[in-house]
Each structure stands twice: as structure tokens, then as C-alpha cells.
């Protein structure tokens, strides 16, 4: 399902039988490299209104990925709600998915990696190259690997 | 034309053709992938059985490359690259899987064990502009999305390199290497035997 | 503030969990994942001025609040002694 006035530039690849919903005025700019939206069986990707996704970004949903209104995802960022392989034991088993949420107004830098369990709250900024798998409080900037809060917005 | 308007026998024929096509597509893709691998890797000294490349790749060999059996190179938004410079060695064991955008470059020696898995955008090069030292990756290693292995690193058997990590030191067996620069922790600390 | 309170405070603030007892396994209760464990290690090093070796990152030292506290106190004693 696609909302009003979407903008698609370059290539956008849509894979899998899962559900993909796109809000109003979404911009998918796949000019640098294709954008990959991969919703597998039973998985859903929800893009809110005014979301901007840049080239090379890859979203893989086995259960649920939600991107809030006005959020921006930079080039080559990876967003996945399943690790696909267990850390130990039989690598061909698939571990459980953990829903992934990026709230409204979040900016995700290029090459950032959002792993299962990520919940970036409203207005937060994820610096380029950051690796996240937990909840990030609203309006902070996180960066690095392991991630650290590198700036807090001063209230008021 | 609406399928419902067609006489019954014809729709059943169409359904059967559709089924046949769906069952044949993976096989056709597999055949193409095997043929593509044979063409791409024609300059390699050894290539094992059933090596498949599911997308375009950048391949350059001026040294010695040995590939094991049943390797898979997945295609995707960026081509993977295999580069082996003059006098260098690049050895990959059997049953190794590569996702798209993987970059492997050997100036002296890169060795990869059996049953390893390399996720998208993994970069492995044994020269970084300052140092040149061989890289060894033992069996059953999983290197996750976007990780970078620096020259001189040895990754032990069954270890995992976490997504986005930059590995600058050796990783012992059964270890999770994570962070920039990567630190090693016991897999027992973060994973139960059965899963993640 | 005691060592125990500081570490518990960090875990509560960072991972948004507070329903756990001192002896609960972080892994088995799913309180902290692998990325989180790296963050905990970085916090311990920075806040307590200790250096954790790679071989010390094992469940015996870090898999519950009481184990972490015991481990940190042992490390602090060792660094003071030397």
C-alpha cells in the first residue's frame, strides 16, 4: 500500500511476500545504489509519512520494521529485525525476530547498522557507522561501536 | 484477459505451466550461477565443484587462488570482489557462503577455512597502507554485515565477528569480536547453546 | 553511592530494565544482549578505572549483577595492591 505523492529516484528493489506500507510524500532515493525493501513471509515494513530513505539502504523484515514519520535513513544503512544466524550451534537455524522501531523525526546516518531490538525514540540522531540493538532515548545523539550517547539535547 | 473467462482445461494448463515455471526458476538460476562462476573464476588455479556466483563480481588474479567445493556468492546491490595480487595467495575452503558487496583482497596471503559465512559489505584485505600481514580465518567463522578485518588478524574456529566491527587483533576460537576496535568476549557470555 | 548501586543505575538507565534481582543471569533473562555487554564493559572500564582483559569477559565474571560487583571489587583491590 502506497500513500499519496511518493517520490522514487533510481532503483528500489522490493522482495518477498510480506507486507510493505508506505505513507504520504515518502522519498526513496536509490540513485547511489538500489534501496532494498525485503519483507519476508509474515514480515511487515511500515514507512510513515515524509520518510526519506537514501541509496543503498537495506531493510529486512521477518516480523516488523516501523519507520516513523519524517525519519531519514542515510546511505548504505542496514536495518534488520532478525540476526538470521545463531551465534552458536547450528548456523542454519533461524533465531527469533525482535520488532524494530524507529520513531518520528529520527535521523540515521549512513552505514549505521540497526539490529533486532532497536528502538530509536523520537527525534534522536544516530551518527554514521553506529551499531545499535537497544532502546535509544528521545532527542539524544548516539555514535560509535559499542554505541555511546555523545550528545543530549538541552531541554527548552 | 481475465483468467476466469477462460475455459476450464486451459486455466488448469496455465496453472500447471505456472507451477512448472516456479519449480524451474531456481534451477535455471542455479545453472546460470554455476556457469557464471566458471567464467568469472577461469583464471584461478583451483576451483572446486559446484561453485556458484548469483550476480556479477569483480575478479582479478595475478597470484594463486584456490577455491573449495560448494561455494556460494550471492548477488545484490553491490558486486563482491576477489582480488589476488602478484605473488599472493588466496585460499577459500569448502561450503563457504558470501553475501553481496564482500571485498577480499590479498597482497601476501588470505586463508579462509571451511563452512565460513560472510555477510554483506564485509571487507578483508591484508594490506592497509601501513602494514602488510597475512590473514587467517579458521573453520565455521561468521563475519557479520559491514565488518572489517585488518592485516595480520587470525580469527579462531567457530568465532563470530559482530556487525560493523573493526578487527585489529587476533580473535581466539569460540569468541565474539565486537566494536571499533573489536574486543573479544566469550560466546558463552552472550549466547546459550541453542541460539542467539 | 556503592559499586552495586552505580552498576545497577547504569543498567537501568541504559537498557530500560529494572525488574531483575542481583543474581539473575543477564543472558538467561534476556536483559542484556551482546552489544549491551560491550557497553557494560566500556562503562566498567571508564567509571571504575579498571582494565578488563579479553579472557576475563566470561559468564563467571559478568553474567549477573552480583558477579559483576564481585569482579569489579576484586579488580579494584588488585590494582590498589600493585
TrEMBL record, chain C:
Residues of the Carrier domain: 1-76
Signal sequence coordinates: none
Taxonomy, superkingdom: Bacteria
Pfam families, A to Z: PP-binding
Protein name (Swiss-Prot/TrEMBL): Acyl carrier protein
Annotated organism of origin: Pyxidicoccus fallax
Organismal lineage: Bacteria, Pseudomonadati, Myxococcota, Myxococcia, Myxococcales
Amino acid at each position: 500500500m502506497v500513500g499519496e505523492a511518493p517520490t522514487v529516484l533510481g532503483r528500489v528493489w522490493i522482495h518477498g511476500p510480506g507486507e510493505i506500507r508506505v505513507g504520504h510524500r515518502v522519498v526513496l532515493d536509490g540513485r547511489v545504489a538500489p534501496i532494498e525493501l525485503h519483507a519476508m513471509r509474515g514480515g511487515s515494513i511500515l514507512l510513515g509519512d515524509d520518510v526519506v530513505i537514501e541509496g543503498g539502504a537495506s531493510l529486512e523484515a521477518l516480523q516488523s520494521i516501523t519507520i516513523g514519520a519524517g525519519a531519514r535513513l542515510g546511505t548504505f544503512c542496514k536495518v534488520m529485525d532478525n540476526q538470521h544466524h545463531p551465534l552458536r550451534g547450528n548456523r542454519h537455524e533461524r533465531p527469533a525476530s525482535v520488532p524494530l522501531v524507529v520513531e518520528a523525526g529520527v535521523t540515521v546516518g549512513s552505514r549505521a547498522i540497526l539490529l533486532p531490538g532497536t528502538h530509536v525514540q523520537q527525534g534522536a540522531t544516530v551518527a554514521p557507522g553506529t551499531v545499535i540493538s537497544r532502546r535509544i532515548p528521545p532527542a539524544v545523539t548516539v555514535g560509535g561501536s559499542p554505541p555511546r550517547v555523545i550528545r543530549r539535547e538541552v531541554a527548552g | 484477459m481475465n483468467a476466469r473467462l477462460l475455459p476450464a482445461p486451459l486455466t488448469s494448463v496455465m496453472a500447471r505451466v505456472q507451477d512448472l515455471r516456479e519449480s524451474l526458476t531456481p534451477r535455471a538460476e542455479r545453472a546460470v550461477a554455476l556457469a557464471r562462476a566458471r567464467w568469472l573464476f577461469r583464471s584461478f588455479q583451483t576451483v572446486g565443484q559446484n561453485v556458484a556466483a548469483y550476480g556479477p563480481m569483480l575478479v582479478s588474479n595475478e597470484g594463486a587462488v584456490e577455491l573449495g567445493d560448494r561455494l556460494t556468492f550471492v548477488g545484490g546491490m553491490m558486486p563482491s570482489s576477489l582480488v589476488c595480487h602478484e605473488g599472493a595467495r588466496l585460499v577459500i575452503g569448502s561450503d563457504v557462503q558470501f553475501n553481496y558487496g564482500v571485498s577480499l583482497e590479498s597482497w601476501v596471503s588470505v586463508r579462509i577455512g571451511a563452512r565460513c559465512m560472510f555477510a554483506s559489505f564485509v571487507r578483508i584485505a591484508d594490506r592497509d597502507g601501513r602494514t602488510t600481514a597475512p590473514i587467517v580465518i579458521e573453520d565455521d567463522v561468521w563475519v557479520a554485515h559491514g565488518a572489517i578485518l585488518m592485516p595480520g588478524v587470525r580469527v579462531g574456529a567457530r568465532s563470530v565477528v559482530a556487525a560493523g566491527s573493526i578487527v585489529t587483533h587476533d580473535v581466539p576460537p569460540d569468541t565474539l569480536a565486537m566494536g571499533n576496535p573489536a574486543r573479544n568476549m566469550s560466546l558463552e557470555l552472550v549466547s546459550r547453546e541453542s541460539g542467539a | 553511592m556503592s559499586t552495586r548501586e552505580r552498576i545497577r543505575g547504569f543498567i537501568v538507565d541504559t537498557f530500560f530494565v529494572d525488574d531483575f534481582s542481583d543474581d539473575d543471569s543477564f543472558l538467561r533473562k534476556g536483559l542484556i544482549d551482546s552489544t549491551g555487554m560491550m557497553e557494560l564493559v566500556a562503562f566498567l572500564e571508564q567509571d571504575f578505572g579498571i582494565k578488563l582483559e579479553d579472557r576475563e569477559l566470561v559468564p563467571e565474571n559478568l553474567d549477573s549483577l552480583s558477579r559483576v560487583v564481585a569482579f569489579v571489587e576484586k579488580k579494584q583491590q588488585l590494582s590498589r595492591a600493585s
